[in-house]
Amino acid sequence: MRPGELARVVWAFARLEYLPGPLLIGHAVGALRSRASHFSDRDAANLLWALARLEEVPENDAIRDIAVGLAEVAGMYSGQSAAMVLWAMATLTTATGPDLTAPVGHPLGQQERLLQELAGAVARDVPILDPQSISMAAWALGTLRMADARIADAVAGSCSATEVLTPFEPQHLANLMWGLAKAGNKVDSSLLEAVATVSHSTHSCLPEHPSRSLRPQ
Prior knowledge:
Elements: H1 3-15, H2 22-34, H3 41-53, H4 60-71, H5 79-96, H6 110-124, H7 131-143, H8 150-156, H9 161-165, H10 170-183, H11 189-201
Helix pairs in contact: 1-2, 1-3, 2-4, 3-5, 4-6, 5-6, 5-7, 6-7, 6-8, 7-10, 8-11
């Protein structure tokens, strides 16, 4: 089965909330681990999302190998795919505990490089991304304690941060701000003012705590 077909099959099982068994999951993990660059950005994102959704967490070494492989191509990912991969990696590593920011072979390892490449892809596409993708990426970076201000800067540096944030639902705002704060980013005052304005005008109350239930569509 080719990488794209394999990713779509596992994704479909996850959407149906059906665990297909260890043979298929093991085959999918092994394929992504050894041939990450053969997966399109969408297929890699869908497969990782499916593993996280099914709570099928690969071993630490497998996650690290996947991160190393994806780092070679992640800079070319669409912002939406990058956000999904960030969310999935954060969800999977929260369950297993591998340090994706640990250096591999040199001060800036391939694993940390992956996170930086993904964050850059999301920041690049902020003007065309939906609120869920932006907030999902920020939540993931906060969960991974990866300080990268480019997403916040991209929102703040847009023609109107308030305009960008207006479509955000309360949960999106909560996850965005939690992620930025948890990652230790210094947030531009214009973005803080825009969030305050949008939060005040929303018809729903902001949730008390950020949620891990945010899922790609």
